[in-house]
Specification:
Elements lengths: L2 E5 L3 H13 L3 E5 L2 H10 L4 E4 L8 H10 L6 E5 L4 H9 L4 E4 L4 H15 L6 E4 L2 E4 L4 E4 L2 E2 L4 H11 L5 E3 H8 L7 H13 L4 E4 L3 E4 L4
Parallel strand pairs: 1-2, 1-3, 3-4, 4-5
Antiparallel strand pairs: 6-7, 7-8, 8-9, 10-12, 11-12
Helix pairs in contact: 6-8
Length: about 220
Amino acid sequence: MVKILLVEDDLTLGETLRDLLVAEGFDVLWVKDGEKALDATFVSEFDLFLLDVKVPFVDGFELLKGLRESGDETPAIFITALTDIRSLSEGFESGADDYIKKPFDFDELLVRIRALIKKRFRARGDVVTYGEIRYEIGPDRLTRGGEPLHLPPFEKRLLRLLLQNIGKVVSKEEIAQRIAEGEELSEQALRVHINKLRKAGFSITNLRGVGYMLEERP
């Protein structure tokens, strides 16, 4: 399931956005200030940030700038009432991928969210195909030959990370940081998860001492 971090201190808007996004099938963590948002990024990996700018303690611009400097490349959309060019420029300079001005139409926000998520998977549409396996990005659904393909939660998170990096090596450190969610991940446990994905039909190469790579399929 696509996981979104929503940072919004307006209680009415925050609750409304959370409920609407959950109804669309997203997993949403809503926090009301920049410090809690920063704490959340240390604990969990997100697929998208939705950030208000004027939030307590650490504002949205400062929050995203710090995350980018630390190497976090999670797609980010600013949702803000600030409409001047200077604020728009600061938003993009801090590392935003998109910027939507309040008040906004929820359907427009959905279009922007889905466009960024497709970009993260380097997909042209809502589906990533791998041989006869199809991964539907929005509903986070896997099928093989038209039949549901069920994976345990950790292996599904691991697969999502590999699908986002097809043909590229993903280091063991990145796997531990992005999907272990604070839990210790041993080398042996990781090998077990990788082998289960291989049995499910994914060609994964182990570059000894470096990491793992999901091989491209024609």
